[in-house]
Write a structure and sequence with these properties.
There is one protein chain. The protein is 7% helix and 36% strand. With 252 residues, the chain is mainly beta. A 4-stranded antiparallel beta sheet has the order 1-2-3-4, with no helix packed on it. Strand 9 and strand 10 form a beta hairpin.
Length: 252
């Protein structure tokens, strides 16, 4: 059994700062924060707006363009801040578009149609202008094919170039769809030089290079037992739970 100990926050953090965001008359709900060199960006999921703050917490600008017209969005699933904070991009699922705005005026730059619009959780824009998207194994339809692929590569014009870890999961209702995953992976950019990723039900860390994911690190679990990826691919949601809860390495 591995040894564990309590780790105090002071051991890993040298300074802690709280910043109150001055939202004026805006009541922010559940959202996502992105901290950049010049500004802080808060994406409110429910209200579908992005508030921009300076590093003192003062509200600087707000993107709130819900609608069907040019430069408007209806179902944003992701946003990013690019080009040294000169541009904000929104991926809108309903319109099947990448919508690009000038930051902070939010004047429309362009709308880019997306081929095979997918559901995804995070993305990285690569140096060559391509987009690498992580779907967290959500079910997507690509060229009339159902897939729980992990990653998707789009070019800067919204054209699908490749899919990675392309597979289907079995569900307990036999519909080839996944609703359960034990781990949530993220794409990691190392100082904009190298891109790494982890995969659900996989004990390897992958590096993305030359249009492919290559394993660079493998982790053994307690007692040297690794997750059996091939077996997990055949399991339903209920079988996944049984696999982990019955494992001697499972901690309640």
């Amino acid at each position: 059994m591995s040894q564990s100990r309590e780790v105090k926050l002071s051991e890993i953090v040298s300074e802690l700062k709280y910043l109150k965001l001055q939202t004026e008359d805006i009541a922010l709900g559940e959202g996502l924060v992105k901290v950049r060199d010049q500004h802080i960006y808060y994406w409110d999921f429910q209200q579908k707006l992005i508030c921009v703050f300076d590093h003192n917490g003062k509200l600087v600008s707000k993107l709130d363009k819900i609608g069907q017209g040019p430069g408007e969005y209806t179902f944003p699933i992701h946003f990013d801040v690019l080009d040294n904070e000169r541009v904000i991009e929104i991926w809108d699922k309903s319109k099947g578009r990448i919508i690009r705005y000038n930051n902070l005026s939010f004047e429309l730059i362009e709308e880019i149609p997306i081929q095979n619009m997918i559901t995804f959780t995070s993305s990285i824009k690569l140096k060559n202008g391509d987009y690498l998207l992580s779907a967290n194994q959500a079910l997507n339809i690509i060229n009339d094919k159902r897939t729980n692929a992990e990653f998707y590569l789009f070019d800067g014009n919204g054209k699908l170039k490749n899919t990675y870890f392309d597979r289907l999961y079995k569900d307990e209702d036999k519909k080839d769809i996944i609703r359960y995953s034990l781990f949530k992976f993220k794409l990691i950019n190392e100082d904009s030089r190298s891109t790494y990723a982890s995969v659900n039900y996989d004990n390897k860390l992958y590096k993305y290079e030359n249009d492919n994911f290559k394993p660079v690190l493998e982790v053994d679990f307690i007692n040297g037992n690794s997750v059996n990826n091939e077996e997990l691919l055949k399991m339903s949601k209920r079988e996944h739970m049984q696999y982990f809860t019955k494992s001697p390495d499972f901690v309640k």
